[in-house]
Amino acid sequence: MLPDEDNACPSTENKKTPPPYIFFYDFRNVLKNDELGREIARIAFPAALGFVADPIASIVDTAFVGQIGPVELGAVGLSVALLSLVSRITIFPLVSITTSFVAEEDTIGTTTSVSDKQETESLEKGSAVNSESKELIPKDGPFEGAYKSNSLAVSSFDVEKIQIQSQRKHIPSASTALVIGAILGFIQAIFLISGAKPLLHLMGISSDSPMLLPAQQYLTLRALGAPAVLLSTAMQGAFRGLKDAKTPLYAIVIGDVTNLILDPIFMFVFGLGVRGAAIAHVISQYLITAILFWRLVQQVDLLPPSIKHLTFSRFLKNGSLLLIRVLAVTFFLTLSASLASRLESAPMAAFEVCLQVWLATSLLADGYCVAGQALLAGAFAKRDYAEVTAIASRVLQLGLLLGLMLAAVIGVGLGFGGRLFTNDVDVLHMMIAAIPFVAGTLPINAVAYVFDGVFFGSSDYAYAAYSMVMVSIGSTLCLIFLSSSYKFIGLWIALAIFMSLRASVGFLRLGTGSGPWNYLKS
To answer: Which of 43, 118, 276, 435 would bridge 267 by S-S if both were Cys, CB 3.0 to 4.6 A apart?
Structure first.
């Protein structure tokens, strides 16, 4: 739902404020513990913890596999990289679309439920009920149930039934996301199982490599968990749209702890090796899915009145745009890793370590991305542009502060903590050389990730997709030239350019008051 100039933000209606002002709006209260600050924190902190929970569990999981041997460790590492690549293409569009659509429908449903509640109360009092019978015909809207009945006599039983049904929300996008998630999950499982061997060949494992068999075993078994992964992803998006980031966090933590407990049991007690690690992971994924489904059905009516209430066309249209965006980002990062692999062993190892630290710390900003997306989607649905301005400026400012804090921590910590990753003097020397780029770009990264939430919360999917394609093309040209001319440092300069351009397109959109932000010029 895009704003128009007839619904200008009340706070800017009587005075001309240039659109760039949104970045500085109420900046002195950025850390204020007001209602908006608490609502952002309530969503952002659990979401950020949920983002880092899985990488931490994967590190421990890898440590268990490493106890078997280097061949198995390498096999699992390549399989996990392949799974991450395939999953990223499907997971990111699904969870992003679901969060925004559920937030919009929940906001609209909350607004319309006020009249429904008043109607129910009047039925209880008998003020609107004929002594003999009354025909109850609910409103027929895009986000309301279509429970129609002819000559339905209203009794105390009927009123109680209405109350029970009203406790659960009618959110068609939640049901649609689950259907799409299940379909994508089965397709992904079939694709990975049937193509395990050729896919591993593409990842660099030759037919005579000792890593092929364990990698194929691990990949095939992990693929059985694809339906659970996609379903849990869809439900995480639904909960975030409902502004509930705690439930997904609890489910993820329970699943990861279960995985860590089952890993040594299946791997060493039962002697299943890498197959045991895969089985433990799949069990944990289905446990996460079960927990999320159990909690979601308590809040949302997942059985719509008819299939026409599902929003497949809307999901497919906007999901395809986000798929374009994901492919553009994935292409650039994959090319960066590929060019790094052509360097000598020391700079290649240093690049991989620094890249993982760079990406992992930047993920913390995704908490503000999720908070901004969910809150902005609701505010746009209400056409409350004063709230839109307040939310967008606050999450961007908080993202910048978080990035500055992370830059200070990594700038100091990576120099002293490099030995946690390696004792090789040459690798440590290259890591120190990369610190200005790794730490210095974290504020830019944080703001760029928060802009993702701003784009998705304002349903600005076309701009998010096509601008990323242009950013990726420009950055790729820089990457090819800089990596060939300046090698290791050239790679990091190109990465810095990539993230700077990502942030720049966000500043351009809001700063010029274009697209959904044209109300800023009113």
So the answer is: 276
